[in-house]
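Input for the complex:
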Amino acid sequence: MENLLKVTIDGKSIEVPPGTTILQAARQLGGNYPPAMCYYSSLKDTGGKCRVCLVKVAQTSETNPRPMPKLVASCLTRVEQGMVVENQSSPEVLEARNGVVEFLLINHPLDCPVCDQAGECDLQNLSYEHGTEGTRYEEQRREFNKIDIGPYVQLHMTRCILCYRCVYAAEQLTDSRVHGVLNRGDVSEISTYIQNAIDKDFSGNIIDVCPVGALTDKTYRFKQRVWFSKPFNAHRSCAKCSGQTIAWMKGDAIIRITARKNAFGEVEDFICNECRFEHKQLSDWTIEGPRDMGEDSVISANKYELPVISPAVNVDAKFVSE
Amino acid sequence: MKILLEHIDKPGIQSIDGYIKNGGYRSVEKALKQLSPDQLVEEVKTSGLRGRGGAGFPTGMKWSFLDKKSDKPKYLVCNADESEPGTFKDRYLMEHIPHLLIEGMIVSSFALTAKTSYIYVRGEMMYIIRILEKAIAEAYAKGYLGKNILGSGYDLDLYVQAGGGAYICGEETALLESLEGKRGNPRNKPPFPAVWGLYGCPTVVNNVETIAAVPWIVNNGGAAYAGIGIGKSTGTKLISACGNINKPGVYEIELGLPVEEFIYSETYCGGIANGRELKAVVAGGSSVPILPKNLILKTANQDARLMSYESLSDGGFISGTMLGSGGFIVFDDQSCIVRNLWNFTRFYHHESCGQCSPCREGTGWMEKVLHRIEHGHGKLTDIDLLVDVAKKIEGKTICPLGEAAAWPVASAIRHFRDEFEAHVRNPESCNARHLHFETAMSH
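Predicted:
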């Protein structure tokens, strides 16, 4: 058995294997772990960009009791034996995090009332916790020329926080990436070059990894506010992916298919474009039962029943309550 | 005492024959035939040479971090992406005495056991790239580069790579990304380049001036170099002086020279131009804190301020600054601190890579607020807003560009707050002055 490393975060300790990052250790500890807008554990090379996960390392290790000179990105910094980390307990960290949230919001359009991501938006949640009531930003907000990136995905560049997740997702999940970040600084934009459609198989996952409403599902646009939708675990037999999805329903109609996400908001199993975009009939799916969205979600407030079962719909016997 | 520019005025020094005639390439003979790579690293450690790109990190220590045990290739990369406003010393060196850099690259590559090395040159300096390529071709022809250099068994290939015109590619990890053919985004550290550098191999990135100092250290010994300068600021430093002075240019100074002498002596800047008074100095390139006349000439303890790493940073950021890259920008009593700061901030806004949130959003925000103040639309609360935004960028970013953008703002307001307030209170008068200034400039 390899040596475990003891790390203390906000006064609580945990032992983790070498190579574990502060964020991963904090997530295992539960409670108030640092937020993450760009890091995505299943996508290689993500992290370090958004800076909302900054924490203070008050003691580097048992052998080096000095603090680290600057706040560090918890998603990339690996724990050492005897490391002491301050997250919520450090006013410095909270001030920095509030600052980053403010930076993320100054050019954000705040068009939540018409944004399909509202209700399941990481930036919305983050600003609820760390934002201020007003803004100090009096300048003109950034705008971009609208571009069409294909039949499946709607791009709203003004909402993008440039987390690069979709770039890594397209790189690692599809057989060729046709989009990336163009330009630099605050005029950087997610784009295809030259005009191109993002329609490779598995490309739909860029919608699920997007923490904001910059990439949304064209087949779901304006169908329903997400908190009025009823998510069900559903599956179908698929040769390309696990076929394990969530079917989002309005009445008895499936209005959206997404991948399933874990407690940290990360996709458990990336799904193919066929499952996501091409199967919107109830008869295409085996409905397992209501999806537990977790306590934080606005969706969990809905109490709802299984859809009315017509003979054409398959429902797993074990999921049907008596 | 001149080390780098000693032979700069000799006729034909740009060509390899003229260079060799003046003692050039002796260090290659000595290093490859008499010294081991580890001995060279020790010699550089002894010299106390510090990185001349701006951070001032001890070069020998940086070299000793290189993971030599790795079975991967090692690389030496020379950072010639000089683009900090006010800094033009590397360009001067490469233009006038290119073989000094080539010689330094050969010896340093040998010390680091690198078989392939690169000089990454700022893309806008195409004429420098041509000069270097010609110099490299000459060095190959004379057997200083290529296979089995001078019969020593050591092989080295040296390439020049043109940058694409981004300031951020002067940040060492962004430089490596760019050299690999990718978007020039800085990497998160650790790992540092000494472990994970170019193509994931152990790599040292050094500034032009740093590498150019190595031949002299090899020829004369690290101890001799350490004997020049003052304290831990050993050797000489190129200072590119500009602004409202009588004699702008590149000067090689022995570290420890009093700032007052540098500004007023006829050997160097020759005093303030047009008979005006000194107002402020940005001593080490646009990113270091600006200091007003009283604090640049003397420290807060009333000691004479010296051109050295320690003396310039005496007082921290409350009353001190940094030697930085040696871009020495002088402002006279008629120059406008607000306008200058807006100009600097505009630069950092334009050059932010956009990868991390504080720098991407904060640099633009600061520029817009400063633009308002400068153009007569500012409010008094904007001044504290700027201080706060700068504070929220500093120390939160992936690379030092965040600090580079924040420090000038924080220091200008710290030392010249009254001038910002005057802009807010009397927008018409400063507009009139600038109009006059712009009219004068256009003639």
